[in-house]
Specification:
Length: 477
Amino acid sequence: MKKQLKLQLLTIALISILATIGVGCDRILEKPFQLPASAKQEPWPVKIGLRTAILRDNIPTVNRIVLVPDEATFLAAIQKWNLKGNWPILIEDKKYVPMFLQRFKPEEIVRLPSIKQQLPKNQKLQQLMLKSAAAAWNATDAQTLKAKWQELGWEPPGVVITSENDPARIAAVALAAARGQPLVFLEGNFGKPNDNLNEAQWKNLQTAVTKAVESTGYFYSQLGDEIDTITIVRQLAVKYQSPQNKDEQLAVTDGLGRHPNGERWAAAGWIYGSQVRSIYQAMCAIFLDSETAMLYDSYPKEGNWGKYEMESAASGLKAIGLNVELVQQPDSSLQTWRSLASKPWRFDLILMNSKGYPKSFQVGDGDAPVDDIPKLQFPAAIHMIHSWSASDPDDASTVAGRWLQNGAYAYIGSVNEPLLSAFIPPKIMVDRLKRGSPFLIAARQLESPPWKVATIGDPLMSIAKPRPRIGPAQQPI
């Protein structure tokens, strides 16, 4: 009895001390990164969005940008991220960094000199990359990182897959660190971005990606378990040959994350390209919020086209605080488009209905060539209902290629003639965004067999209200 009384007195004393310093006793047992029980019944895309929102709520954004000259300095700089705050880090250039700076408007810009170290190779490079990603969680390697996540109640929403030999590899480190995801490596030749994989090549890629996800040790085989997204950050083909029709191409990002029977177990996104552009795309997805949107509807209002009207989508986006510019019939025309495209766009989100081919798109009463795609003053996430726009995304003379070259950091478009029903009507897509579903997932037909819509970008990026920032003095480098 005396021991029990003594324990009770100690507990009361501890609670009293915690109350004095403003900490409730429930904080001792709380796992701050754990999804609340009330969210467990939500659809899996909403749960994914809620999990990324937990990170936004718990890890502040510091109101600074760090600019570095090279990869080695980037990996040194990102090891300064921690649970008290993260901030954008970009490799400085004259194109993408100015766009990011104009949009982010940091309180502080820090330019770091090169650490003048050559990156190691092979296993040692992988270890350095894993260490750099783990540092953001106050861990030192993959093992201590997993233990830290368990301590915090964090369940990774996805896996980031890269190659140690790919120029986009440091973007993978950033996405793994910021999103709390395992980083794994996939070596081998799986085509170039504009390629079309044959059946054997496609099966090799599918098997390799599934094994990479399995290697993390997390549950992945059903939607709604731990791993529900795959972020590919490396070069590979955008399309593969349809097993049912050799003349049709399907989107690699829609075919990945599926069982042999076609049933989906994850949604995929894809970032590829140069060091500068890939890290820019990652930082945009992690740190930029959405405030403005352009909705351009070139479709008539009758028949199946009418299901893709954008008035409802515009209302939905306004309801979550975005300033929306809507252009629709009869105002949408080639003349209107060219007038709008004559100056750089400052929209965070662009939704567009069109018809056309890889190198042209209908804007109402006429076809616009790729050269009529506007310059972007701000980074943008783009959803384009259009045939063939993403058939060759690494070619700047095609629709997707030009948008990406101009500074789009996320892009949704078709690799082949998809039929209109391949795309989610804008109203439904915006309804999903309002509930918190990430952008690339909200735009996808989630229950259909593998089809033709490619999703380029970070699959965990959401259209969310601006987050508060903390001053640089609160989290010094």
